[in-house]
Amino acid sequence: MKLLSSRKPHYSPTPRKSSKFAPFIALALLLTIPLYTFPPSHKLLLPLLLERNNNSNLPCSSLPCNDGGGGGLTLRRRELRLGKGNYSRNRKVGRPKEYLTRVSTATHNEEPGIIRTKVLEDQKCDLFTGEWVPNPQGPYYTNATCDAIQDHQNCMKYGRPDTGFLKWRWKPDGCDLPIFDPHQFLELVQGKSLAFVGDSVARNQMQSLICLLSRVAYPEDLSAPTDQNKRYQYTEHDFNISMFWSPYLVKTGKLDPNEKRPFDLYLDEFDPHWTTKIALFDYLIISAGHWFFRPTYFYVNNRRMGCLYCPESNISHMTSVFSYRRAFRTAFRAINGAVNFKGVTFLRTFAPSHFEGGPWDKGGNCVRKRPFKRKETSLRDFSLEMYLIQLEELKIARRAGRRNGGKFRLFDATKPMLLRPDGHPSKYGNWPVANQTFANDCVHWCLPGPIDSWNDFLQELLKRENKR
Ligand SMILES: *[C@@H]1O[C@H](CO)[C@@H](O)[C@H](O)[C@H]1NC(C)=O
Ligand SMILES: *[C@@H]1O[C@H](CO)[C@@H](O)[C@H](O)[C@H]1NC(C)=O
Ligand SMILES: *[C@@H]1O[C@H](CO)[C@@H](O)[C@H](O)[C@H]1NC(C)=O
Ligand SMILES: *[C@@H]1O[C@H](CO)[C@@H](O)[C@H](O)[C@H]1NC(C)=O
Ligand SMILES: *[C@@H]1O[C@H](CO)[C@@H](O)[C@H](O)[C@H]1NC(C)=O
Ligand SMILES: *[C@@H]1O[C@H](CO)[C@@H](O)[C@H](O)[C@H]1NC(C)=O
């Protein structure tokens, strides 16, 4: 989180289309936040936060609106409206919610032409299309009742003054999404093990889950305090949670965030660190995102194919669209090939950041105090591109899974979270330090906060699994 501007990569990026991408060069430095380790604790059921109700809603006119963190990139401008049926220009009339149709852009290296993606599960109600509605009962824990909140997301501790952002719940259009019930959840997962695979946003969800469960039980931490990988055991409930730190999902060179040299990404090779353990789990939640904007060399077949923001001029400069698609394809291939894996894989899709008024390293911030309505924003540019890649790769994985029994499900965090510019730590992830500039964190989510709803989704998705 010590995002001093001196920590930016010291070489200037040379890619053809580089200038507009510059804000992304090290956005993911935000994601290298050190892990705060919390002591085991058994504090239960303490009173909820008192509401301090002073919402001051910023009108759109005072800030550039709709900059979902990917503004002004070189991709052809396209939007994904979240309204009923307004998925795209080429929407399929008649079954608008079930199809997502698009015309691929010139920047796509693969699969040109029209790609149609079926996004819905074979279920009546699409959980992920809806609105945020007021929920005066929230939140369901505080930093006083849960020790699993790591400092950088402990927004109340660092003086966030407004609490209105804690008072919303997600309402799907066609049904209700029940609020997380820790008793019910622990019953659902009895005898099961769950793994998160991803980066610090995955960890953010895991910590939310531990906090939501803390009203009933607190896990034993079986992991080394400094290890980014975590293992928690709920002995009484025979339930385990693991977190595999794998921000690129595939094999990488050493991931030292202070490293000046771009990372090596082996885009067609498994990250053995998690792929050798797949069969131990009943549920995998796979995610990845913001790290793909960092300087990297791309390897395929052990050969350097290109790079993103590397200093050399004799390498082909490519975009993260290339690495993102390949990384998911490889990760899903590992899962489909995992011997003895009988579990379910959830793809938790990309959660957009919400920098407004500038990029992350030029004073961009997220100061809104209430959610967007879906007509107020749209998914665009890089966020849209990454989301579509995920949907497409999920579809490909499912097709392969059909042959070997692999089960892949959509866990769509993108659509709900696009509407939550108010849920990020902003400057409330640390105390101000004299003479130091910190970037505002508009990537992670305050705890408690809107990311708690991801575990509402998780509970509902697991319930649906049991009914299949
Ligand atoms: C918000 O509430 C806090 C605490 O009640 C108060 O100190 C502050 O002045 C209020 N801010 C506004 C803008 O009303
Ligand atoms: C959907 O698109 C139509 C025109 O294409 C527009 O009139 C309507 O307002 C849009 N709805 C939403 C919710 O954005
Ligand atoms: C929790 O937040 C309050 C402000 O709401 C703060 O005073 C306190 O220090 C925080 N406690 C912990 C343990 O983070
Ligand atoms: C949870 O982890 C413990 C310790 O590794 C193991 O003994 C137990 O079988 C695991 N339980 C489940 C349900 O995977
Ligand atoms: C690229 O240039 C570097 C020196 O700048 C050289 O060491 C390297 O071999 C060159 N690579 C290729 C593929 O030409
Ligand atoms: C911060 O800057 C001020 C003025 O530039 C200087 O007097 C002070 O010593 C600096 N403090 C630290 C901790 O560097």
From TrEMBL:
Alphabetical UniProt keywords: Membrane, Signal-anchor, Transmembrane, Transmembrane helix
Topology within the bilayer: Single-pass membrane protein
Location relative to the cell: Membrane
All copies of domain Trichome birefringence-like N-terminal, residue ranges: 123-176
Entry GO CC: Golgi apparatus; membrane
Every Trichome birefringence-like C-terminal domain range: 177-460
Stretches of the chain forming a coiled coil according to its record: none
Listed transmembrane segments: 21-38
GO molecular function terms attached to this record: O-acetyltransferase activity
PANTHER family, per database record: PROTEIN TRICHOME BIREFRINGENCE-LIKE 19, PROTEIN TRICHOME BIREFRINGENCE-LIKE 9-RELATED
Family: Belongs to the PC-esterase family. TBL subfamily.
Protein name in UniProt: Protein trichome birefringence-like 19
